[in-house]
Design goal:
Layout lengths: L23 E8 L2 E8 L8 E5 L6 H9 L5 H4 L4 E5 L19 H15 L4 E6 L1 H12 L4 E7 L8 H13 L2 H9 L2 H6 L2 H11 L4 H12 L18 E6 L5 H10 L5 E6 L6 H4 L1 H14 L10 H16 L5 H11 L12 E3 L1
Parallel strand pairs: 3-4, 3-5, 5-6, 6-7, 7-8, 8-9
Antiparallel strand pairs: 1-2, 2-4
Helix pairs in contact: 3-4, 6-8
GO cellular component, one term: growth cone
Main location: other
Subcellular location: Cell projection, Growth cone; Cytoplasm
């Protein structure tokens, strides 16, 4: 397997000195819709699901998730779960370009590949973590196989098919913008693209000079041809597991995620809107997302004895200090402070909750 490529991204707490990336095993399995490649980290834990990730368009599992899963505070989580990172067909490193006329799988068909992966690994349940197109794919899989999905973390999900106005805008944009620029506009906010930070330059270079750009375009087209998931609050078509929806406060998909939140079961759904995270919170705010993910797992009954992260420790100290000054502050004030800091309850989800952090 090719060596890991280091992505230079500023993080609040990178791997501790002396820590090295985990050993990975990469596999490919044939499915009714072609071959799919996935990478497994760790060993299965008894009575625990696998953390199962699926990346967005223009990325692969490394460029989408590596900054998050190599973050220092994430190490406690990954020590407790085996991880499976899926690369959409043709997106893995070194993938050959598909021949002219190749029919790329639809997003529904990509979701139908997942049972082949789980059967190959002999895994019975997963906790899915998906971004963009990957979030849609995992949601479609969860609708078809609810008994195998214990929880979902969906970043930047857009569950809706494109309408006529969307199609017209997409076609018009295609006349004036290149495929890489359209994909960058899907991944990042206009403010981020205008700022042209080191992160944006890095990912613009990754996508523009990708040797498999033709494959990326096929994945992009499948995403734009997705069907409506038809979520309906109180209806038959809904996600039946705990769900954490995540979006940046200036992300291109903010409205779509808000709408998705309104359609899901409020007793099973938490909504995390992250400040200062742009379009890809798993890249720009890995610390805050790690903390939220840990609370999400605790709410599902895992890692009950988990240590607090550095962020939550500092917040706890701050709130304790404030309480000693004014012991009569109301419970609502405390909950407000908790929401502003991005803390998610570790108890069972009782209602849909919007959190800005």
């Amino acid at each position: 397997m090719a060596e890991l490529q280091e992505v230079q991204i500023t993080e609040e707490k990178p791997l501790l000195p002396g820590q090295t990336p985990e050993a990975a095993k990469t596999h490919s399995v044939e499915t009714p819709y072609g071959s799919v490649t996935f990478t497994v980290y760790g060993t299965p834990k008894p009575k625990r699901p696998a953390i199962f990730t699926y990346h967005d368009v223009g990325l692969n599992y490394k460029s989408c998730f590596q900054p998050l899963f190599q973050f220092g505070d994430m190490q406690e989580i990954i020590q407790n779960f085996v991880r499976v990172h899926v690369d959409a067909p043709g997106m893995e490193e070194g993938a050959p370009v598909f021949p002219l006329g190749y029919q790329y799988p639809s997003l529904d068909q990509l979701a139908d590949m997942i049972p082949c992966i789980l059967q190959y690994l002999n895994f019975s349940t997963i906790i899915g973590v998906g971004v963009g197109a990957g979030a849609y794919i995992l949601s479609r899989y969860a609708l078809n196989h609810p008994d195998t999905v214990e929880g979902l973390v969906l970043i930047n999900i857009d569950p809706n098919a494109k309408g006529w106005m969307d199609w017209a805008a997409h076609k018009l944009t295609g006349l004036t913008s290149s495929i890489p620029e359209m994909i960058l506009g899907h991944l990042f906010s206009q403010e981020e693209l205008s700022g042209n930070s080191e992160l944006i330059q890095k990912y613009r270079n990754i996508i523009t000079h990708a040797p498999n750009l033709e494959n990326i375009e096929l994945y992009w087209n499948s995403y734009n041809n997705r069907r409506d998931l038809n979520f309906e609050r109180g209806g038959e078509i809904t996600l039946k597991c705990p769900v954490m929806l995540v979006v940046g406060d200036q992300a291109p998909h903010e409205d779509a995620v808000v709408e998705c939140n309104s359609k899901l079961d409020p007793t099973q759904t938490s909504f995390l809107k992250m400040a200062d995270s742009g379009g890809q919170p798993q890249l720009t705010q890995p610390g805050k997302l790690t903390e939220a993910f840990k609370y999400f797992l605790q709410g599902m009954g895992y890692m009950a004895s988990s240590c607090m992260t550095r962020l939550s420790r500092s917040r706890t100290a701050s709130l304790t200090s404030a309480a000693s000054i004014d012991g009569n502050r109301s419970r609502s004030r405390t909950l407000s402070q908790s929401s502003e800091s991005g803390t998610l309850s570790s108890g069972p989800p009782g209602h849909t909750m919007e959190v800005s952090c």
